[in-house]
Amino acid sequence: MQGFDAEIEKAVSRASKAAGWMYALAAVTLIVGIVGAVNTGGIGLIAVLPAVGLLSGLGVIINLLAMHLMETWRQGNHARAADTRQQQ
Protein backbone atom coordinates (compact mmCIF):
# COMPACT_ATOMS: atom_id res chain seq x y z
CA MET A 1 0.00 0.00 0.00
CA GLN A 2 2.92 2.35 0.65
CA GLY A 3 3.95 2.09 -3.01
CA PHE A 4 0.49 3.23 -4.06
CA ASP A 5 0.64 6.17 -1.64
CA ALA A 6 3.98 7.22 -3.10
CA GLU A 7 2.58 7.00 -6.63
CA ILE A 8 -0.37 9.24 -5.69
CA GLU A 9 2.00 11.79 -4.18
CA LYS A 10 4.18 11.71 -7.32
CA ALA A 11 1.15 12.18 -9.57
CA VAL A 12 -0.06 15.17 -7.57
CA SER A 13 3.43 16.66 -7.60
CA ARG A 14 3.69 16.26 -11.37
CA ALA A 15 0.24 17.79 -11.83
CA SER A 16 1.13 20.82 -9.73
CA LYS A 17 4.33 21.31 -11.75
CA ALA A 18 2.37 21.03 -15.01
CA ALA A 19 -0.20 23.56 -13.77
CA GLY A 20 2.60 25.93 -12.79
CA TRP A 21 4.12 25.64 -16.26
CA MET A 22 0.73 26.36 -17.84
CA TYR A 23 0.41 29.55 -15.78
CA ALA A 24 3.98 30.56 -16.68
CA LEU A 25 3.34 29.90 -20.36
CA ALA A 26 0.15 31.96 -20.18
CA ALA A 27 2.08 34.86 -18.63
CA VAL A 28 4.78 34.68 -21.31
CA THR A 29 2.11 34.52 -24.01
CA LEU A 30 0.42 37.59 -22.55
CA ILE A 31 3.70 39.51 -22.45
CA VAL A 32 4.45 38.56 -26.05
CA GLY A 33 0.92 39.66 -26.97
CA ILE A 34 1.39 43.04 -25.31
CA VAL A 35 4.69 43.55 -27.13
CA GLY A 36 3.01 42.45 -30.36
CA ALA A 37 0.15 44.87 -29.72
CA VAL A 38 2.59 47.76 -29.57
CA ASN A 39 4.02 46.74 -32.94
CA THR A 40 0.73 45.86 -34.69
CA GLY A 41 -1.60 48.45 -33.24
CA GLY A 42 -3.60 46.21 -30.89
CA ILE A 43 -4.31 43.25 -33.18
CA GLY A 44 -1.67 41.08 -31.50
CA LEU A 45 -3.25 41.44 -28.07
CA ILE A 46 -6.71 40.56 -29.36
CA ALA A 47 -5.30 37.43 -31.01
CA VAL A 48 -3.37 36.36 -27.89
CA LEU A 49 -6.09 36.82 -25.24
CA PRO A 50 -7.98 33.60 -26.11
CA ALA A 51 -4.73 31.62 -25.98
CA VAL A 52 -3.91 33.08 -22.57
CA GLY A 53 -7.39 32.20 -21.33
CA LEU A 54 -7.11 28.64 -22.60
CA LEU A 55 -3.67 28.11 -21.07
CA SER A 56 -4.82 29.52 -17.73
CA GLY A 57 -7.96 27.41 -17.85
CA LEU A 58 -5.93 24.30 -18.58
CA GLY A 59 -3.75 25.06 -15.57
CA VAL A 60 -6.85 25.38 -13.39
CA ILE A 61 -8.27 22.10 -14.72
CA ILE A 62 -5.00 20.24 -14.06
CA ASN A 63 -4.88 21.68 -10.55
CA LEU A 64 -8.50 20.74 -9.82
CA LEU A 65 -7.97 17.18 -11.07
CA ALA A 66 -4.93 16.82 -8.80
CA MET A 67 -6.94 18.06 -5.81
CA HIS A 68 -9.76 15.67 -6.72
CA LEU A 69 -7.32 12.75 -6.90
CA MET A 70 -5.83 13.67 -3.53
CA GLU A 71 -9.25 14.02 -1.88
CA THR A 72 -10.50 10.72 -3.32
CA TRP A 73 -7.36 8.98 -2.10
CA ARG A 74 -7.76 10.54 1.37
CA GLN A 75 -11.39 9.46 1.63
CA GLY A 76 -10.47 5.94 0.53
CA ASN A 77 -7.80 5.72 3.22
CA HIS A 78 -10.24 7.06 5.81
CA ALA A 79 -12.91 4.51 4.82
CA ARG A 80 -10.38 1.67 4.83
CA ALA A 81 -9.19 2.64 8.32
CA ALA A 82 -12.80 2.79 9.57
CA ASP A 83 -13.51 -0.68 8.14
CA THR A 84 -10.40 -2.07 9.79
CA ARG A 85 -11.40 -0.60 13.16
CA GLN A 86 -14.95 -1.90 12.75
CA GLN A 87 -13.78 -5.45 12.03
CA GLN A 88 -11.63 -5.56 15.17
Distance between the termini: 20 Å
Structural class by helix and strand composition: mainly alpha
Q: Can you count the beta strands?
A: 0
Total domains = 1
Q: Would you identify the regions where 5 or more consecutive residues have pLDDT less than 50? A: none
The largest pleated sheet is described as:
none
Shape: rod-shaped
Work out the radius of gyration: 20 Å
Q: Count up the helices.
A: 2
Task: Please describe what this structure looks like.
With about 90 residues, the protein is an all-alpha fold. It has one domain. About 95% of the residues lie in helices and about 0% in strands. The chain is built from 2 helices and no strands. The protein has helices at about 1-40, 45-85. Helix 1 packs antiparallel against helix 2.
List the main descriptive attributes of the protein structure presented here:
transmembrane helix; 2 helices; transmembrane; 88 residues; mainly alpha; membrane
Briefly say what this structure is.
The chain is an all-alpha fold and 88 residues long.
SSE topology:
Layout: H1 2-40, H2 43-87
Helix pairs in contact: 1-2
